[in-house]
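Q: My labmate handed me this sequence with no annotations at all. I'd like to see what the chain might look like in three dimensions before we decide whether it's worth expressing. Could you predict it?
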Amino acid sequence: MGVPSEYKIGKCNVILRARRLVVDSLKVAYNQINFDRLNGYPSGGWSDWPDKPCIFLLSYMRSGSTLLSNLITSSDEICGFGETAIRYSVDNSYELLLDKLSASSAGASLQGASFLFDKILHNHLGFPFYHPRFQNSRYLILLRHPAYALSSMMKMPRYGNVSSASVRLNINQDYLFSRLCALEFAMATYSFDFMVLSYESLVSDSSLVLERVSSFVGLSEVLSQDYVVDVNKMTWGVGDASDKIKEGRILPARTLEGQDLPPVPDRIMRVYDRLMGRI
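A: Here is what I predict for the chain of 279 residues:
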């Protein structure tokens, strides 16, 4: 598969714009749940730790990633809590992941788990493709229709002093386009195991989708449609904290019929449609 001409690639680099306000909001959120060790891990603490295969959920904001993360990390075979905000471009990213997991509520399952889990929603965090300790990883790419994702993004309290709705919409459109381009670029460039799925199918055909995910990952038991609600996943900036998520089970998607959805530029839909074609 060739690299589409819609985005330029220099030295493995897509035209991506990391938003400082998103980074700052993530730092605030992680300080709230005592994850303030973003740049360090126990010296030598993980040197003899076995290389456990990892499951990475690659997606974008407001895609349903919190729901899928909860479903995945409720498995006894998997150690994870959601989004760690680790920069996977650094050499010690595997050790950082272990450090984050051991310090979280998921830490008790770290020793006995068969898999480690993290989700990556932002381009500035990079991808773990180059790291030798992530070579046996599985990659799930979760998509949600851009109109519904953008509609949800517009309601997020993350804009600081930006009050203009049109400016907020442009920020979100740029973010979504650059993120979709990065996901497509990853699939076109790296020969790893990717599975593409949609949020819409996850909530409408849950049993089939969870069977496929479980088989793809290599779990001994199929993921359940019920999940454990972890308060550490319910902090803004780390995941969706809505009452719907706190139900602990898959619920039907909200209907937005009759509501005005934000416009979706053709450039976004073209990349989204190509990714959906990989399901």
